[in-house]
Amino acid sequence: MSGKICFKCEKPGHIARFCTANDTDTDTDHDFEHDEDEICCECHCPRYICQLSPDHEFMPLGLCVLGIYDICSLLTLNLKVDVIVVCSSSDGLRESVLRAAGPHIQRAYAQAKRTKSRDEMIALECSNLPCQRILFLPWTPDEKLIFTEQTIKTFLSKAVKYVLDENYTSVAFPAIGCGQYGFDADFIARAMINHIKSESYPLSITITICPKFHHIFQAFQNANAKIPVIQSLPDTWLYVNDLNKLRYLVARNTHEWRIIVEEFNTTMSGLYRRINRIEHIQNDRWHKQYVIHREDFQNRVKMNTEKFLYHGCSAMAADSIIKDYFNRSLSGENGTQYGCGVYFSSNASYSHVYSVPNNHGERCMFYARVLIGNSTLGNTNMKVCPGNYHTTTDGDHIYVTYHDAQAYGQYLIYYQ
């Protein structure tokens, strides 16, 4: 709060909401005589704590609702939910909700802050807003997007755990990170919605968005319309009499084919001429080990951290991987900059460098399921993954695994 001036006592370091001057005065109207029911379009803060520029455009304060499972158009928040989650680290959002909740909640929050650490959540019953409780939950992003995505998942998981433990059935989340933290709305939308959908929480979930921020609403609408890849790609085998057959062609012009090609083209557009075929790998022994490992991961990490990532290699190496998994003992052939393990990337264009063409110019690349777990920055000295972590990373798009059953090569893309 440093740098802000209290309009109540005119001293720096806090705002009127937390000023102790005349605390016994129950008439709080004068506390906000300088406040206005408007929010800054630049920093998303209420006018009375916007410090960035007097030229900022302001607009009426309110909330809009975007249904995760039932997209609706922009509307004023009149939908009642059991719990409204507030990112307490966001000055603008926190102050806006406290102002709307009224003096009783403002005092209760200030009192709770004095008895709790900065990392603890605060849950308050509320009658002035269309909810039973407000859950104030801190969130701290990381400089690296990979780790920030993990913090978003943790934020959502903590809130959902509280809601379920209290036997509530509905919750509203803010679009965290799009305001004062300045993260790209598309990144935040994908991270939040993909996590919510992949976890399949038994709750009615909405995302609250301030009016006029149409680009944020559009980002969430786009992310919601696109079914997460992990959910849409099938786990089912096409069992036939030939039990030795490990590869099955993915039919063209199917939803499965389109999803894979669309993701591939995200970074590969212009780097290849055509996709010749896509094989669905069905190694029953490998898959069963992977599923067991995945269940163990979810029990330990308490969330779904599975991703589809790319792994480029030669056709000969691909044959070996399909029979005997991603073998960590062969690590080091293409470097160990982030650890001595098996390397995967979320960017197909990066894995393309390691996809060795055959005599006909055809290359191959795995589109693999990978269990990320908790990840940390890697280095060349890491022979095994550090304690309490499951993968190492470059902090951008590379993940390194250290267990042979930690990844499953579900698809093999042939292209040139």
UniProtKB/TrEMBL annotation:
| GO BP term, pick one | negative regulation of gene expression
> Which subcellular locations apply to this protein?
Nucleus
Residue ranges spanning the membrane: these are none
- PARP catalytic domain location is 233-416
Question: What sequence ranges are listed for the domain CCHC-type?
Answer: 6-19
Q: Which domain of life is it from?
A: Eukaryota
Coiled-coil features, chain-numbered ranges: none
Q: What is this protein called?
A: Poly [ADP-ribose] polymerase
Q: Which organism is it from?
A: Adineta ricciae (Rotifer)
